[in-house]
Structure formats: C-alpha cells, structure tokens
TrEMBL record:
<keyword id="KW-0812">Transmembrane</keyword>
<feature type="transmembrane region" description="Helical">
    <location>
        <begin position="6"/>
        <end position="33"/>
    </location>
</feature>
<keyword id="KW-0472">Membrane</keyword>
<keyword id="KW-1133">Transmembrane helix</keyword>
<protein>
    <submittedName>
        <fullName>Uncharacterized protein</fullName>
    </submittedName>
</protein>
Length: 113
C-alpha cells in the first residue's frame, strides 16, 4: 500500500465520519427546533392568557365586553324566538292550573337551545 492509497483511505474515512456527524447534528437540530417551537408556543399561550385576564378584569376591553353583552342580551330579548318562548310559557302556566311538573318540563325544554 502506497502513501497515496493510505491518504485516500484516510480521507474517505474522515468524509464518512463528517457525514455521520452531520446527520446526527441535523437530527439534533431538527429535534431542538421542534422543542424550541413547542416551548415558544406554550410561553405565548401563557402570556396571552395572562394579558387577557388582566385586560378583562381591569383594562379597556372590560367595557367593550360589557357593552357587547348588553347588545346581545337586548337583541335576544327583542327577538321573535324570545316572544314565542314567553307566550308558550305563559299559556302553559295559565292553562295548567298549577301543574308544576308541566312548568318544569317547559323550563327544561327551553334550556336545550
């Protein structure tokens, strides 16, 4: 075996070692990236929830939420569905002559919507 053959074998071995090391490094980098990504998502969720709680409890968004709730509540009270529900319950109570079981059934039927 000549010096040229020995150097070719050694260079090939170094190339294989570098390739294996590169593959291991790539797998570690991919795993690390996914882990960092998951940690960043969790941290963002926690920070977002904390900020939302703070804003809802004392921030400017509390007024906006209360205003929207008022609008939706008033809209529901003025809807035809609510009027029909009230008529059904009033008719059932008026004509049931104290049949409390029927009142409870009507009350439970309305909660399913």
């Amino acid at each position: 075996m000549s010096y040229a053959d020995l150097s070719a074998v050694l260079l090939s071995a170094v190339g294989v070692i570098v390739a294996i090391f590169g593959g291991v490094l790539a797998v570690a980098a991919f795993w690390g990236f996914n882990q960092v990504k998951q940690d960043a998502i969790q941290a963002a969720e926690k920070a977002g929830m904390r900020e939302m709680k703070e804003q809802i409890e004392s921030g400017s968004i509390k007024g906006d939420i209360m205003q929207e709730i008022s609008k939706l509540t008033e809209k529901e009270f003025r809807s035809d569905r609510m009027e029909q529900r009230i008529k059904q319950v009033v008719d059932a109570v008026s004509f049931s002559y104290g049949n409390l079981k029927k009142d409870r059934e009507l009350d439970l039927d309305g909660d399913e919507e």
